[in-house]
Amino acid sequence: xxxxxxxxxxxxxxxxxxxxxxxxxxxxxxxxxxxxxxxxxxxxxxxxxxxxxxxxxxxxxx
Length: 62
Fold this sequence. Notes:
Layout: H1 2-18, H2 24-45, H3 50-61
Helix pairs in contact: 1-2, 2-3
């Protein structure tokens, strides 16, 4: 899931930059936050903690 998220956001960032999206820098910051959160959750999920798995699920469906 973490790899898919990174790939999707990288593609979106390229698309937004190429089209001159006016809020590109602000949107890029949101991506950074999301990538950081996904990485932290993936690291915690390695411990197979059920609470972390639920938190990850809730985050992804939001």
